[in-house]
Amino acid sequence: MNTLRTAMLLAAMTALFMGVGYLIGGSGGMIIALLIAAAMNLFSYWNADKMVLSMNRAVEVDERNAPEYYAIVQSLARQAGLPMPKTYLIDNPQPNAFATGRNPQNAAVAATTGLLQQLSHEEVAAVMAHELAHVQHRDTLTMTIVATLAGAISMLGNFAFFFGGNRDNNNSFGIIGVLVAMIVAPFAAMIVQMAVSRTREYEADRRGAEICGQPLWLASALDKIARGAERIRNPDAERNPATAHLFIINPLSGERMDSLFSTHPSTDNRIAALQAMARDIASAAAQRQAPIPRQADGQRPSGPWERAAEQPEQSTEPARPRSNPWGRNPTGPKGRWS
Q1: Burial class of residue 168 (count of CB atoms within 10 Å of its CB; 0-12, 13-18, 19+)
Q2: 334 pLDDT more than 80
Q3: 306 included as an active-site residue
Q4: CA dist list (Å): 103 to 13, 147, 181
Q5: Which of 68, 131, 255, 310 is labelled catalytic?
Q6: 208 near 126, Cβ under 8 Å?
Q7: Cβ distance 95 to 112 under 8 Å?
Q8: Which terminus of the chain is more solvent-facing, meaning fewer CB atoms within 10 Å of its CB: N or C?
């Protein structure tokens, strides 16, 4: 199903790219756009993850220079049954994270130094579990390629102002076509990004909570990241807005509100869904620990109730992250980030 969905999205983006080419250069422009789109699809499949990491100036880390952060990702990957992804750190004070890669065997996860500085150990674990959920669902390939093509479509729309609308390009739409290419095409690309991102965040939240075992850890992390993104600007993301939907929370300063044009669902709605998930888990645990019924003579019946009675009592209160911030990035590379 994921393969079919990816193919459909890539076909839609390619068709949009060709449409922009036709509006700019007529039939010749459409053919050129088709060739460019085909080359970009092939290039993006193999290199889009490297481009996204480079755009955000991510640095690969390991157990030697980021032992605690690396250990969190390693433990969660093992819990999820995934290969260990490459682990990156971004020198950026805004708390945020994303995942990329064409498949689980070639995946990468990245977190900002702001995430490690402002969140607790449990909250960081929940965020990275969310990113590993994207890897497990193979969202990363689709989201990364769409980011690349959306950026190219937006750029092509800008080129329309300079190269479109003349009489020699076999363009029957004239200035109208140029205006459509300049305005509508980037907007349509954004709509496709929204279709990719908004529906997948809820599912990644749910699976991430399952991987780390505590929905409220992720709920707390989302609240902190959203408030941090409101206060702290992310210059790299602002320069490359087509990659915004990759992040767990929208990193752009102008798109924080939940609206028709947001690349992410409402943070409050995501938190509410995680809180409901935590209540369901607590309710199920309470039912498993219900009082053992007794027979008329006061004796407990034999069978599964006896096995239940042997289990130690456990609290049904959902676990919340401890308030133990890590301080000045003890898990980051030594040197200027220490």
Answers
A1: exposed
A2: no
A3: no
A4: 20, 16, 33
A5: 131
A6: yes
A7: yes
A8: N
